[in-house]
Amino acid sequence: MPLEGSARIVSELTSRGYNAEREAVTKIASSDDSRAVLERVIEEMPEDALVVRPTHVEAVLTEAAGRSNGPGAQRAADSGGGTGPETGGETAASTDRAVQSNPSQEDPSVSTGTGTATAGESSSGSPVETEGSASDRTGGFGERDLEIANDMTGQSTGTGEYEDFVSVFRDRLERLGSKLRGRVNHRPATSIESMPGGSEVAMVGLVNDVRSTASGHWLIELEDATGTFPWLVMKDREYVELVDELLCDEVLAMEGTLSDDSGIAFVDSMYFPDVPRTHEPSTADRHVQAALISDVHVGSEEFMEDAWNRFADWLHTEEAQHVEYLLIGGDMVEGVGVYPDQDEELDIIDIYDQYRAFNEHLKRVPGDLEIVMIPGNHDAVRLAEPQPGFDEELRGIMSAHDPRIVSNPSTVTIEGVSVLMYHGVSLDEVIAELPEEKANYDEPHKAMYQLLKKRHVAPQFGGHTRLAPEEKDYLVIDEVPDIFHTGHVHKLGFGKYHSVLAINSGCWQAQTDFQKSVNIDPDAGYAPIVDLDTLDVTVQKFS
Ligand code: D5M
Ligand code: FE
Ligand code: ZN
After folding, report:
1. Is 479 part of any domain?
2. Do both 202 and 324 map to the same domain?
3. DSSP-assigned letters across all residues of 159-171
4. Which of 297, 426, 428 has most ligand 1 atoms within 8 Å of its beta carbon, as the pocket-test mutant?
5. Ligand 1 pocket check: which of 294, 466, 514, 519 to mutate, most ligand atoms within 8 Å of Cβ?
């Protein structure tokens, strides 16, 4: 089936307010008179349905074939030919999602269950779906398997008081420290001071300060719950090359020898929480793919609508039939007032209108794709991390495709493969602080490796990255993910760190004036596609 046919159908359906499943579009495109079938399908869509499903098309095709007494056609006739979908209908959208199944198979006996379709169309007020229930969608071999962890939306307790900062850092030290304590014979900072000179000592702590001495050595101050202790890395030791990777507030362990006066320790080894080299990632037990994107920036004059449409249309093709998940890593819209003079490059000035436009662009994506999204620094949620998922009003605006909206960061496990999603503001910081060969904009995945090594998505407090203190540190990477997905720097890059696949997706925004002024050349209009059964990546280009 030619892409043009299917793209035209998707575009027509989107302009009438409908989102469509890939198979529904394929069925229309391959019918004898696709234009007439398309019109009939639109005419006969039940009033509260938002997604055109294969059953809707089947009903029209059956009717056309003269078998007009089928249950599908009957139902369509009963609905009285709605003129368009209800937008923002929470209930309709939620019930709709509960029946998304059979995404791509050609076997009509599996894909045309009218019972299923009826359930989908009745807005019977069934409760809004709760976490984990996607796996209830047993629908043959198109079954989806999606779970969310570490979503802090609605869990925020921090008031921004000093005590909150103390408790979040205590939690960080406690949890990351527990990954290190078994590896060294550690002592609290205050008891190290009272040990005899020359003793072998070790400590687990947060990096409080890193500075060079007059003679070119490095002094690193480590802090734990009892106090601080200074550690000296001699310039001729092999560990010196690790010093330029250190960020303030990361947690590590040091081992060394106390000076004669017990006032300082000379470092012999450094340990990072890190990803064990033996880590073996989980993979899906069927061939299924996920598209990992971010930084759509709808509302910006530079938003690349044509590239986005090509991407969405491609998702409707045979080639993309195994893409069942779309993960969006933040910056859905351009936002307002994010940077000085940003308004000069806005195409849509009202933030809510930007989300409405984004919702329209999402509609073009096949209705049977499961979408998960987290916010970024351009989105209309608090800037400080962790960022809760969008509020009810914005969820209402973005409801057409019924995406899963979770916090930044969050971990989504799809088909058994865990994906840590984080927008990536701290990458700017890692790139600024570390030497070029260890982190740079052209290889954003290398900066991600550092975050994996530190087991924290935003170690440094008080710089670019704003942190909101909560009672626990949601930014700690507790469990090693199978995939780490970030965005933000608008550069595409991926690679493996101790078998964890790190992917920084590009963006859908062409170079802005600011980016031109600082020589940022964005990778715009690419979609990295991950095979969840092998963790192999292919990149599709749409620009
Ligand atoms: O971030 C896109 C990238 O560009 C990210 O690396 C930050 C950087 N950026 C973009 N605009 C600015 C301004 N005005 N100041 C500093 N850094 C900037 P995004 O989150 O999409 O804006
Ligand atoms: Fe961005
Ligand atoms: Zn960003």
Report:
1. no
2. no
3. ---HHHHHHHHHH
4. 428
5. 514
Q: Is residue 487 part of a domain?
A: no
Residue 48 has pLDDT above 90, yes or no: no
Do 173 and 189 form a contact (C-beta atoms < 8 A)?
no
Considering the chain, what percentage of its residues have pLDDT values greater than 90? 74
Q: Model confidence over 243-288: pLDDT tens digits?
A: 999 999 999 999 999 999 999 999 999 999 999 999 999 999 999 9
For residue 273, the CA-to-ligand 2 centroid distance in Å is 29
Tell me which residue range forms the domain holding 236.
180-271
* One domain, residues 233 and 339: no
Region of residue 490 (left: phi > 0; alpha: psi -120 to 50; beta: else): left
Instruction: Count CB-CB contacts under 10 A for residue 519.
Output: 8
Q: How far apart are CA 277 and CA 283, in angstroms?
A: 17
Report the CATH number at residue 397: 3.60.21.50
pLDDT at 142: 55
29 & 130 share domain: no
The best mutation among 295, 344, 520 to test binding of ligand 1, ranked by most ligand atoms within 8 Å of the C-beta, falls on: 520
Higher pLDDT, 119 or 335: 335
Encode 80-106: b = buried (16+ Cβ within 10 Å), e = exposed.
eebeebebbbebbbbbbbbbbbbbbee
Whether residue 489 has its Cβ less than 6 Å from ligand 1:
yes
Residue 172's pLDDT is what?
Answer: 97
CATH number at residue 196: 2.40.50.140
Evaluate whether residue 276 is within a structural domain.
no
Tokens describing residue 269 = 């080894």
Residue 539, amino acid: V
Query: What's the pLDDT band for 4 if we cut at 50, 70, 90?
Result: low
Domain count, the chain: 3
- Round to whole Å and give the CA distance between 72 and 142: 22
Mean pLDDT of 310-315: 97
In this structure, are 50 and 146 located in the same domain?
Answer: no
Taken in order 329, 515, 364, 336, the sign of the CA dihedral is: positive
| Residue where one domain finishes, among candidates 78, 93, 126 | 78
User: Are 413 and 313 in a shared domain?
Assistant: yes
CATH number at residue 72: 1.10.8
Identify which ligand lies nearest to the alpha carbon of 294: 2
Give how far Cα 38 sits from Cα of 14, 34, 45, 103, Å. Answer: 12, 6, 11, 20
Quick check: 6 and 14 in contact, CB under 8 A?
no
295 lines ligand 1 (CB under 6 A): yes
Contact in structure between 330 and 374 (CB atoms under 8 Å): yes
Residue 158's alpha-carbon distances to 384, 424, 472, in angstroms, are 11, 22, 9
Is residue 54 assigned to a domain? yes
* 308 and 257 assigned to the same domain: no
Residues 368 and 509 in one domain: yes
Helical H segments across 79-182, by residue range:
90-97, 108-111, 114-121, 162-177
Take atom 7 of ligand 1 and give the residue whose Cα is closest: 489
> 522 and 382, same structural domain?
yes
